[in-house]
């Protein structure tokens, strides 16, 4: 690390107990309506420190989670979340999946925020102008439901207020409660550019919605028509196929007689249905052409029960399943999706029997005005009385329920606005095929392709009051299906109407609103200013680099954004789509309030810290669901503490702030230089080489979006290589040496490796890493905007292999000490047997070996052959050409150990003999359950193995020396 400005190392500017803080000069570069900020770091002197923001590990036992908010506010106040164009390079842009304005943080939000923030922080440190676009969705159905329920608690209905007053109430609710989810997302550390925060009903985004509708209608991609939709009777609106959830629920299969017109009482067909109330909408009965049971009735008419003799044709079609029910299918095309398609193919009429509130209309005759489920019960009783009810069998139903309201959805033919999807889907398919769009994991390409290949037209109208009003105006006195105006605004609509119909024309706007997903599908480009921003400024950030979201939202949002982006901008809106899985509980179950297994992210952050939660969530595999457990969170909280303690160790062992000469020395090391690396002692050369390898591995994994690999690679290196080995090794330099150059190089390596660990770990664990970074000396910038570590730096593979031999020797000695229960404080002697090459580099680290293995420094001997007392020593083979002999007398009192083992063997033998005796008993074998016998066999096998090992150890001890028992017997 070259020292660029030694004058910065004055005692007044070096940090020891308080951090250096760096502000930013701000000069704005405005590209209306977009706004960017260029950031220039400026070093503050000690007098400008804000010690209330950061806390040093030297004065705090552990990282304080309450500091997270202060750190976050500091980042934001310094403008670090805004894109910085000073570094050049192509921008990295991510649009946040806008959470519902009604929402509060759940683990799904925590997952996407964590992953997107990792991407953003990494690319920011890589020097790219980085923009993360935040915002919230107006969530038409969800928000309207929340406000309607609030009003209902006051005894007020939506209809009582009228549209204008109701929407006013919703806006009031949004202003009061709508920021909850945003503040909670900030709590997770989301480094979004909050100056660009958007709401889908913002004026600019609303203009984008109207422009999109206008352009697509001009191309005949949007049309109006009466077709089958999913109808929510409670909400009284159409809902998307994707917003209908199917659940298996107990119900019945009803068998009903349909008499044949003109036939005798024995001429009838029996149908089986789960929804008898729909029979009022029957327009035909169908049987399979090859079903001989009913062939004589094909071409005749059947009488629909309880309709005063209404006739419907009996037809044949191969669509009918002969094996289901009775093999006779009642066709109710106005109330069943499959029947609707069949009726359109066969040219059957479509009969609607239901009002929009779920009651039956006049077509149902005497049942008119009754609720659909009330009719089901009443109709069955009436059919029983008229001898048309055959039987009612229990049956498991697949019930369609509204994702938002929970009520049972009714298939209903309704006049709605639709988008023709096939031409849009074709372009979206080609984008993936041509490689213009990359989906990760790639297995989701097949799902994406399948859905787009089989896509249906999209119903985009909703019968709500909260949302984007459909930009269509009708002419008073004209047929609304024939005469209407599509315009970008009411002013434009009125102008067009006057031009066509005269000055006295009156117009009114379509009462419906657009599906929330329509506006959300414009999100990646409408948030960037489309269509208002100039083409030059728009292309600065569009197309966006990355879309990250859950795989369960692939069709709700992702595919639609791709289609709309290509159609409206001519460009694929994303370069990459990264799909994460669901967060499940520790047992792999989906989290739900019903199961009581929902984990609250806010509570989790308060208990374990935000960094531990983020690290846990990020360790999953792309696209795979993640089981969240307390054990994982606890482990990663311990990781945070370990990181903090490592920082404490590094800081406590650096030169004092007043020792500017020593500080200048450790800052002058250039570890990116081959010559410098090769001049380092073995442990230092090893750890720096391993670090350089790690940087390459981690950077490659970041670039591939393999975040689970990133986390595991850094975790393993920090915990094992750095904390367990190098920190312990450095103590031999810092505590036991004469100081000087050896101590200085250890200090330099500690600082170099630790600061690079902080850099690589920062995207995962931003809070604790920034706190630690600020405590290190000579911090000329915040960690969040620091440069990413250089790749392809030198590494010495031979030193790595040599230190691995050193580690193997140390582990072997430690294991032997543990096996013989040597007291931790006891120092023992050792003879190290190796060839001259190995001896040369091992002997140079004699102090380290003594420290790590708890050997007597003065009693470590290096030789090329076994020592004379080898037969009285524990022989260890650490690796090829590297052995050690530990005198047994150093480790254990042989006489006492022989006596202890002899007693233990006697006890173990009795236990083993008892188990064998039970297994040898014919009576026991005959009466005992199989699992009990298997358990005893397993215990006997384990007991025999332990007995053999203990006997072998006793034999070895007896062979090493002459031992006398207290009774004077020679062994």
UniProtKB/TrEMBL annotation:
Protein name (database record): valine--tRNA ligase
PROSITE patterns on file: AA_TRNA_LIGASE_I (PS00178)
Sequence similarity: Belongs to the class-I aminoacyl-tRNA synthetase family.
EC number(s) given by UniProt: 6.1.1.9
Reaction catalysed by this enzyme: tRNA(Val) + L-valine + ATP = L-valyl-tRNA(Val) + AMP + diphosphate
Domain Methionyl/Valyl/Leucyl/Isoleucyl-tRNA synthetase anticodon-binding span(s) in chain numbering: 686-830
Stored InterPro entries: aa-tRNA-synth_I_CS, aa-tRNA-synth_Ia, Anticodon_Ia_Val, M/V/L/I-tRNA-synth_anticd-bd, Rossmann-like_a/b/a_fold, tRNA-bd_arm, tRNAsynth_Ia_anticodon-bd, Val-tRNA_synth_C_sf
Aminoacyl-tRNA synthetase class Ia domain mapped to chain residues: 71-629
Keyword list, A-Z: Aminoacyl-tRNA synthetase, ATP-binding, Coiled coil, Ligase, Nucleotide-binding, Protein biosynthesis
Taxonomy, superkingdom: Eukaryota
Residue span(s) of domain Valyl-tRNA synthetase tRNA-binding arm: 893-957
GO biological process: post-embryonic development; reproductive structure development; valyl-tRNA aminoacylation
MF annotations from Gene Ontology: aminoacyl-tRNA deacylase activity; ATP binding; valine-tRNA ligase activity
Sections of the chain in a coiled coil: 891-953
Gene3D superfamilies reported in the protein's UniProt record: HUPs, Isoleucyl-tRNA Synthetase, Domain 1, Valyl-tRNA synthetase, C-terminal domain, Valyl/Leucyl/Isoleucyl-tRNA synthetase, editing domain
Annotated Gene Ontology cellular component terms: cytosol
The keyword Protein biosynthesis is annotated on this UniProt entry: yes
């Amino acid at each position: 690390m070259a020292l660029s400005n030694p004058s910065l190392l004055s005692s007044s500017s070096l940090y020891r107990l308080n951090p250096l803080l760096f502000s930013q000069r701000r000069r704005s570069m405005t590209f209306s309506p977009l706004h960017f900020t260029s950031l220039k770091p400026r070093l503050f002197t000690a007098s400008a420190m804000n010690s209330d923001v950061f806390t040093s590990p030297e004065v705090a036992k552990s990282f304080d989670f309450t500091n997270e908010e202060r750190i976050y506010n500091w980042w934001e106040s310094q403008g670090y979340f805004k894109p910085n164009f000073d570094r050049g390079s192509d921008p990295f842009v991510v649009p946040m999946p806008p959470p519902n304005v009604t929402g509060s943080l759940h683990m799904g939000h925590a997952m996407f925020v964590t992953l997107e923030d990792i991407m953003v922080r990494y690319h920011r440190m890589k020097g790219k102008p980085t923009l993360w676009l935040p915002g919230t969705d107006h969530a038409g159905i969800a928000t309207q439901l929340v406000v309607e329920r609030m009003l209902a608690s006051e005894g007020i209905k939506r209809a009582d207020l009228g549209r204008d007053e109701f929407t006013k109430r919703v806006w009031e609710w949004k202003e009061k409660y709508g920021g909850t989810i945003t503040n909670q997302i900030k709590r997770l550390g989301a480094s979004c550019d909050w100056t660009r925060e958007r709401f889908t009903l913002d004026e600019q985004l609303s203009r984008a919605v109207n422009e999109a509708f206008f352009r697509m209608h001009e191309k005949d991609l949007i049309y109006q028509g009466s077709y089958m939709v999913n109808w929510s009777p409670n909400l009284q609106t159409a809902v998307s196929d994707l917003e209908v959830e199917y659940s298996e629920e107990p119900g019945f299969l009803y068998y009903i007689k349909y008499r044949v017109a003109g036939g005798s009482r024995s001429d009838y067909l029996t149908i089986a249905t789960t929804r008898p109330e729909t029979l009022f909408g029957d327009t035909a009965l169908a049987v399979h052409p090859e079903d001989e049971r009913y062939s004589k009735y094909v071409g005749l008419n059947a009488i629909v029960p309880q309709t005063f003799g209404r006739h419907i044709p009996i037809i044949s079609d191969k669509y009918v399943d002969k094996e289901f029910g009775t093999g006779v299918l009642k066709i109710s095309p106005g109330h069943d999706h499959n029947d609707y398609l069949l009726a359109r193919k066969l040219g059957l009429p479509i009969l609607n029997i239901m009002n929009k509130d779920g009651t039956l209309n006049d077509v149902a005759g005497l049942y008119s005005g009754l609720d659909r489920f009330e009719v089901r019960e009443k109709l069955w009783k009436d059919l029983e009385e008229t001898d048309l009810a055959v039987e009612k069998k229990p049956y498991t139903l697949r019930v369609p329920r509204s994702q938002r309201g929970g009520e049972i959805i009714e298939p209903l033919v309704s006049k709605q606005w639709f988008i023709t999807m096939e031409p849009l889907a074709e372009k979206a398919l080609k984008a993936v095929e041509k490689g213009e769009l990359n989906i990760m994991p790639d297995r989701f390409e097949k799902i994406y392709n399948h859905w787009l290949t089989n896509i249906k037209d999209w119903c985009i109208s909703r019968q709500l009051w909260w949302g984007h009003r459909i930009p269509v105006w009708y002419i008073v006195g004209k047929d609304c299906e024939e005469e209407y105006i599509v315009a970008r605004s009411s002013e434009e609509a009125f102008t067009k109407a006057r031009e066509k119909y005269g000055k006295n024309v009156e117009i009114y706007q379509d009462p419906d609103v657009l599906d929330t997903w329509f506006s959300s599908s414009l999100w990646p480009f409408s948030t960037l200013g489309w269509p208002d921003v100039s083409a030059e400024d728009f292309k600065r950030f569009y197309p966006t680099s990355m879309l990250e979201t859950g795989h369960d939202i692939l069709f709700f949002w992702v595919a639609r954004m791709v289609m709309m982006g290509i159609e409206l901008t001519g460009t694929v809106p994303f370069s990459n789509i990264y799909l994460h899985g669901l967060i499940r509980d520790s047992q792999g179950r989906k989290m739900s309030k019903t199961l009581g297994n929902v984990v609250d992210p806010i509570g989790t952050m308060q208990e374990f810290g935000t960094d531990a939660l983020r690290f846990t969530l990020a360790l999953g595999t792309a696209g795979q669901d993640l089981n969240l457990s307390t054990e994982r969170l606890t482990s990663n909280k311990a990781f945070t503490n370990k990181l903090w303690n490592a920082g404490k160790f590094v800081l406590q062992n650096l030169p004092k702030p007043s020792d500017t000469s020593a500080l200048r020395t450790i800052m002058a090391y250039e570890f990116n230089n081959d010559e410098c690396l090769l001049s380092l002692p073995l442990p230092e050369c090893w750890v720096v080489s391993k670090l350089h390898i790690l940087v390459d591995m981690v950077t490659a994994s970041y670039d591939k979006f393999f975040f689970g690999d990133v986390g595991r690679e850094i975790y393993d290196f920090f915990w094992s290589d750095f904390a367990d080995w190098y920190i312990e090794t450095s103590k031999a330099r810092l505590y036991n040496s004469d100081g000087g150059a050896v101590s200085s190089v250890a200090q330099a390596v500690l600082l170099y490796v630790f600061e690079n660990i902080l850099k690589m770990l920062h995207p995962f664990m931003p809070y604790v890493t920034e706190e630690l970074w600020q405590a290190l000396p000579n911090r000329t910038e915040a960690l969040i905007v620091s440069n990413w570590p250089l790749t392809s730096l030198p590494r010495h593979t031979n030193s790595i292999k040599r230190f691995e031999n050193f580690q193997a020797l140390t582990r072997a000695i430690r294991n032997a000490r543990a096996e013989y229960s040597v007291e931790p404080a006891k120092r023992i002697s050792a003879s190290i047997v190796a060839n001259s090459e190995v001896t040369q580099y091992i002997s140079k680290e004699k102090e380290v070996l003594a420290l790590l293995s708890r050997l007597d420094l003065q009693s470590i001997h290096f030789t090329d052959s076994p020592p004379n007392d080898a037969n009285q020593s524990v022989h260890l083979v650490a690796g090829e050409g590297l052995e050690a002999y530990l005198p047994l007398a150093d480790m254990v009192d042989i006489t006492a150990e022989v006596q202890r083992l002899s007693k233990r063997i006697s006890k173990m033998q009795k236990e083993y003999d008892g188990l064998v005796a039970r297994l040898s008993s014919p009576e026991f074998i005959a009466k005992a359950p199989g699992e009990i016998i298997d358990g005893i066999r397993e215990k006997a096998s384990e007991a025999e193995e332990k007995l053999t090992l203990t006997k072998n150890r006793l034999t070895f001890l007896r062979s090493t020396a002459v031992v006398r028992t207290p009774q004077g017997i020679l062994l």
